């Protein structure tokens, strides 16, 4: 029978399962992490765990936090197993399990975030980190500036002591830290955003300025917001993942599966100190932008290259997509001919080599990463991951035909039906708006590009707009595979 995961049962786990060798009762907190999803627990939490295995970072343990009802459900599940997580590494040659113990508490989730604000105000917290999805930073997609008109932001500006957002809670905590002489903390974004630290700084400082300009100036001058590139493919957890943990003899309500690859490149800008993550395999660098550009342009955009065609063809996982000969060829051609020319090499890895690495990672059959998960929130991912390369291609005079086809596939997918007639369940925060515009674009493709908040002036670029319209009409008339084959034929 499987053993219920807890501190008391660690020693009873099967020998093949790695478990913390350090004394968790002696760990002291140093980090509040907001957004305790799978990615954090497979990535940042794991790096810290590996430091603790070396006898290091014993005063940097993680306190979990959140602001949504789902976060309270997660807190209760984690608390019942002493905040331990089973990580299951999925490799084509076999899988392995490891229990991670770097998280030691989880703040109760309440309306107004009072407990979270109080915990972030304590002087032992020196880093507040976040994984709240790339679309969660209240950024205007067209201008990349702060969206002060969002209802959540309007609320937090008017009620700074009872905020709705994680950022409002951070601002409230920083106000108390300043007033009590505790000092600043480092805000650490761990989401897939270019210049993610700069984006977090913009959100925090801009929100503070709406209610307290002097506080905004103090935050801007004293807090640090290091940019970082994070990378690990981490599928969502469902019954299959829970069953995998049971197969290792562990009864874990929230196990995490992940690929056998991780990367974390970080600017060394921490106003109150930091763990030595580099001793666990992370990399401190002044060239984070180079690493993140390679990853976002090739990996994250690469996901968007393939998932909408796959959704329309009812292909359910990323590995199955890569086994589809036509979509795989499409992926290779767009990456190597239209994306790679605009990516600068980083030490130890050319863009072409990185495409080959991503190809192998996407094709890993042990990773059951769903098309639906990767296609989620296209309204953030396309402007953030794909369209910057379109603009580079237009400026440089290189081909954007394949990227125009990628956007046409997204527009067709957002109409809400697959080619077999089945419905696509809503998969974007703005799904109803996208579906309405996608329906109009069936007759007039330009309607899609007129979403200026996503496309900016690209509707006015004939080389892109004409290609987009041609591909969208072809998809509707001849189908996805015919359009892909036409592109591949040149």
From TrEMBL:
Origin: domain of life: Bacteria
Key word Ribonucleoprotein present: no
Oxidoreductase in keyword set: yes
Sections of the chain in a coiled coil: none
InterPro entries assigned to the protein according to its UniProt record, in alphabetical order: 6-PGluconate_DH-like_C_sf, 6PGD_dom2, Mannitol_DH, Mannitol_DH/Oxidoreductase, Mannitol_DH_C, Mannitol_DH_N, NAD(P)-bd_dom_sf
Domain Mannitol dehydrogenase C-terminal per the UniProt entry, residue ranges: 287-470
This protein's UniProt keywords: Oxidoreductase
Domain annotation Mannitol dehydrogenase N-terminal: ranges: 30-279
PANTHER family on file: MANNITOL DEHYDROGENASE 2-RELATED, MANNITOL DEHYDROGENASE DSF1-RELATED
Annotated protein name in UniProt: Mannitol 2-dehydrogenase
Source organism per UniProt: Sinisalibacter aestuarii
Lineage: Bacteria, Pseudomonadati, Pseudomonadota, Alphaproteobacteria, Rhodobacterales
């Amino acid at each position: 029978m499987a053993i219920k995961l807890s501190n008391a049962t660690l020693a009873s786990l099967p020998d093949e399962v790695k478990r913390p060798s350090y004394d968790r009762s002696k760990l002291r907190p140093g980090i509040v992490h907001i957004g305790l999803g799978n990615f954090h627990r497979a990535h940042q939490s794991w790096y810290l765990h590996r430091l603790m295995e070396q006898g290091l970072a014993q005063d940097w343990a993680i306190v979990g936090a959140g602001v949504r009802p789902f976060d309270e459900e997660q807190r209760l599940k984690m608390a019942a197993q002493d905040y331990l997580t089973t990580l299951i590494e999925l490799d084509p040659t076999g899988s392995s399990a490891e229990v991670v113990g770097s998280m030691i508490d989880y703040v109760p989730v309440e309306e107004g975030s009072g407990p979270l604000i109080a915990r972030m105000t304590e002087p032992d917290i020196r880093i507040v980190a976040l994984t709240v999805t790339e679309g969660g930073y209240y950024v205007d997609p067209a201008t990349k500036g702060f969206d002060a008109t969002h209802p959540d932001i309007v609320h937090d500006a008017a009620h700074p002591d009872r905020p709705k957002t994680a950022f409002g809670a951070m601002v409230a905590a920083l106000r108390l830290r300043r007033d009590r002489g505790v000092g600043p903390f480092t805000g650490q974004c761990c989401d897939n955003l270019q210049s993610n630290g700069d984006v977090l700084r913009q959100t925090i400082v801009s929100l503070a300025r709406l209610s307290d300009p002097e506080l905004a100036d103090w935050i801007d001058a004293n807090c640090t917001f290091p940019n970082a590139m994070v990378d690990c493919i981490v599928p969502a957890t469902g019954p299959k993942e829970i069953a995998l943990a049971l197969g290792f003899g562990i009864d874990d309500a929230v196990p995490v599966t992940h690929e056998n690859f991780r990367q974390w490149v970080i600017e060394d800008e921490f106003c109150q100190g930091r763990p030595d993550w580099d001793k666990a395999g992370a990399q401190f660098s002044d060239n984070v932008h180079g690493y993140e550009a390679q990853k976002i342009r090739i990996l994250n955009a690469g996901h968007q290259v393939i998932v909408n065609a796959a959704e329309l063809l009812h292909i359910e996982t990323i590995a199955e997509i890569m086994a589809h000969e036509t979509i795989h060829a499409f992926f290779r051609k767009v990456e190597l001919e239209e994306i790679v020319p605009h990516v600068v090499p980083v030490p130890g890895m050319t863009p072409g080599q990185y495409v080959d690495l991503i190809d192998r990672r996407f094709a890993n059959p042990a990773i059951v990463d769903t098309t639906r998960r990767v296609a989620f929130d296209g309204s953030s991912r396309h402007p953030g991951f794909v369209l910057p390369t379109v603009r580079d291609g237009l400026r440089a005079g290189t081909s954007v035909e394949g990227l125009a086809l990628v956007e046409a596939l997204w527009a067709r997918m957002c109409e809400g039906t697959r080619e077999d007639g089945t419905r696509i369940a809503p998969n974007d925060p703005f799904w109803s708006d996208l579906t309405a515009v996608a329906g109009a674009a069936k007759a007039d493709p330009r309607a899609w590009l007129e979403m200026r908040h996503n496309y900016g002036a690209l509707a006015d670029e004939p080389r892109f707009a004409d290609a987009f319209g041609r591909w969208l009409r072809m998809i509707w008339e001849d189908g996805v595979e015919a359009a892909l084959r036409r592109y591949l034929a040149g």
